[in-house]
Amino acid sequence: MPFAIRVKLSAMMFLQYLMMPVWFLALGKYMAGLEGSAPWMFWVFNTMAFGMMASPVVCMFADKFLNSERMLLICDVTAALGLFGAAYTSNPGVVFACLLVTMLFYMPTWSITAAVAMAHATPAAFPQIRVFGSMGWAAAALFGLVAKHVFGAPEFESTRAIFLCGGGVALASAALTFFLPPTVPKGRNEPMSVANALGLRAFVLFKRPEFAIFAVLFFCSMLPFQWYNSWTVPYLHLKGFELGVSMMSWGQVAEMAFLLLIPVILRKAGYKWALVLGVVLLAARYGAFYLGAAVPGLAGECGDVVGILLHGLVFGLTIVGAQMYVAEIAPPEIRNQAQGLAMLISSGLGVLASNYLFGKVVPLDKPTLPLFARGYLVALAIAAAVAVLMAMLLRPDDKRTPKE
What we know:
By secondary structure, the protein is mainly alpha-helical. Helices cover 75% and strands 0% of the residues. It has helices at 3-18, 21-24, 27-32, 41-45, 47-53, 55-64, 68-87, 92-106, 108-120, 126-139, 141-149, 161-176, 194-197, 209-238, 244-259, 262-294, 298-309, 311-329, 335-361, 369-393. α14 (209-238) crosses α19 (335-361) and α18 (311-329) runs antiparallel to α19. The longest helix is centred in the C-terminal third of the chain and has 33 residues, at 262-294. The two termini are 13 Å apart.
């Protein structure tokens, strides 16, 4: 791969994953400060899920009609407009509408950027490029740190500045698309159908029993996995951490190192056992968080740190491993839609089900540390059960290793 293309793809990943955490991870704290926000909390947190549900349709355009980098341009500009709209209203219903527009166009970019990178890189090189997305996610912590230490604004995470920063990054990402390598639609000559129009062609993968089993278990693993993204910052605020997003960024720092190990782990263990290991570590993470919520003092704080640092391995083995597996088994003409399907399972249906389940365990309007401790036990139990089922049910075809 030419070095210039590697740099452009890495910058694409950095900006795409920088624009979301600066506002999404602080969303619970921001919404709590808006009058009349309680009825909207559940809906605002699920904009991520609704956006991912639209992902197959958006990705269909990148598979059939538009170059992927042009589709990315449209998504980034629209996401920026939605974030700027959310910044200039204090009505929680309007905030929800703006963020819904943002996520309908932002969430498909996770699939589109993965497809663009994989179109120009080998499976073994993909994690080396994807790691820059982790760097971008971690770099979002700098917004809060600069606001506090340079501008003397420690309450950055509860102000509209989170949306303005996210929108600015979205515009920078949109500008970068003009320099990305062309990624032409592979399905341009395929006949049009209802399945094509709705971005559903990737559902043909469910005809393979090994993929159907993988998809169901992958979804189940997302129930505990996605709760981390939605409610760790409010939990950290209860523990007394002023800048929760900055605290969580250590998970992405660890992720940077671990992502570079993913190709090695996949070659040694294969997709099946890499996924099993990822879910076992997911259970361990919630064991650590349970310690943090239930035990006061230094032992509890150590549990929180361990839970955050484990995010790197958990994310790399489950999400990135699943993306690479789907990219390998999907035909080229539906590769964008296949990535969209994987993201629909993880960040669409997975987020929606996770928020609903844990919203029952930990009420969104009155979270307490004992309730979080109970939630972490539930998450641990689900992850442990899924790990056992994966070890038992994933088929031999899922043991394959990535091609060089």
